[in-house]
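[Q] Does anyone have a clean structure-token version of this?
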Amino acid sequence: MRIDILTIFPGMFEGPFSHSIIKRAVEKGLAEIHLHDIRDYAISKHKNVDDYPFGGGAGMVMMVEPIDRCITKLKSERNYEEVIYLSPDGELLTQPLANRLSVMGNLILLCGHYKGVDERVRAHFITREISVGDYVLSGGELAAAILTDAMLRLIPGVLGDETSALSDSFQDGLLSPPVYTRPADYKGWKVPDVLLSGHERKILEWRHEQAVQRTRDRRPGLLDE
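[A] Here you go.
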């Protein structure tokens, strides 16, 4: 998988992309991540990428031309399955959506800032808009990092145990059951006996029952879905 991220703050990705799962995916050659500074495509010598909104109002708007130049250059070099804009009014990022995106070859992620991007970018370049939640961030960079992590961890070979992602919350429409590790008894707080029994079928049944109960208690809407 190749992910091209368009941003005016490429330095924001240095931390999350230099550790853990994303770093492992890149080092194994299972993913490529390329950061593109939109300012490099600005037409003015001052590298301006934003301007005042037509009609007035507070805030600035990211200009269409630098984004057009960047996306057009990338699309001239390869085909992209999706050009994604991280936006609070996009479709909500879910596990099924991350699953679908994880099998694609080339993606462009556009990070907005200020009051957003010129609407003509969304009308003529964007194929999908994704939100990471019903709240507003200062920019799309953190959302792009979340989406990248959610996708890359699903690529076969990225996780140490390839079955691990299959038991994550939401993969089967349920929250994950409780998990425990050593010691079996800590301050009198004991691990459920069934997990120490070695009886695989009973353990699977217990985990499923716990997942259903936890989902019913914490996210009942998932059961309705």
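[Q] Thanks! Anything notable?
[A] The domain at 2-152 is CATH 3.40.1280.10 (Alpha/beta knot).
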